[in-house]
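Per reviewer request, we include the raw input and output of the structure prediction for the construct analysed in the revised manuscript.
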Amino acid sequence: MMVKGGEGAGKSVVGIVRTLNRIRRAQSGIMVSPDLQHFKKSLWPEFQRWCPWDKVVPSQQYRGAFEWSPHEPFALSFVNGATLFCGGIEEPMSWEGGNVSFAHLDEARRMKDATALKVLDGRVRIAGADGTPPQLWVTTTPRKNWLFEYFGPMLADDPRAAFKRDSRVVTLFTSDNERDGNLAAGYVKQRRQSLNESEARVLLEAEWEDIDEADRFLMSMVWWDVLKEALPPVTRREPMVLAMDAATGRAASVSDCFGIVGVTRHPVRHDDVAVRFVAKWQARAGHAIDFQGSEQAPGPEMVVRKLCRDLNIVEICFDPTQLHDMATRLRREGIAHFREFGQGALRAESDKMLYDVITQKRLAHDGNADLRQHIDNADRKTDTQDRKMRIVKREESAKIDLVICTGMAVYEILRLNV
């Protein structure tokens, strides 16, 4: 089992509570950190707070004192016969030994490889007297290293498929712990001020991501600027795909930016693509976007209706997270053919395809300033295992909705035989 969480999300406490529940059932086990220093400063002080010290044998109850700190691995004995082996696991092979019923490895992301996991897994061999099965659990902030290999999503022909099927992954969010009153009010907002967007996703939302491996989406904006050309107005004969994306600020529950991009085949080079329409709506602070709008200031829905009346819109693809209601209503009216565009594996494919058509000079655009700004705001994360790419924000305030729309629309116009 893996409990992954952001900073202050309570993941170590979850592991400690599980440990104490096993001890209450008179089961012996292991509780370790990547090294003794981390154990002394992090895991052990938290365990001291939760441990019922009257259940520890009298001769060892002194270890519950705030001023006591371990200097080497030790065994904590309980009056019901359970023993908890504690310390740092800098040298995993030194922890090989007898049978236990459970093991808790905290902050495993700091381990360079899976050796500690394998050693502990080999020691967890016996069920409890009440039939509770032996179990190993890992509590950590995620890192896309060996942890991802063992606990990440199932892959095709996954060498760890059996392990993953027998494992469970639980995700804890720092914001939830703040909401429950276990952190100071405003902690998450304040913590974000010192983090970039990638760091926030990992350290506050426990996402699988390498926070030290982000690159700019385009190494130079020259790659984008050289694709600018004079494009003729789109005609009713040209099939067009529209893509819609509505972003939500992390502190908000409503859309604060809405993008629509329309893409066709290039009017001359049919194997290439051309961006023919771009629109963006940005909400004022504390306000939501009016999807309908007015005649003087049309909102996204009015614009979509007009485009479908005036042009040959063969498909509208959209991010269903924020736009399911709007798309469902328009679909029922027969406005156009709508397709939900998943933001997981499919998005990773479209992000990579957009990068490819740009760098291979197979895309044309008219120089729209909003789209250029969103391109410039974007970073990319590349998965070296499956060669997919994910476009991400460089900073929370840096919007990239038009980039995401462009990628989705390009993917669909090339997929469709039009």
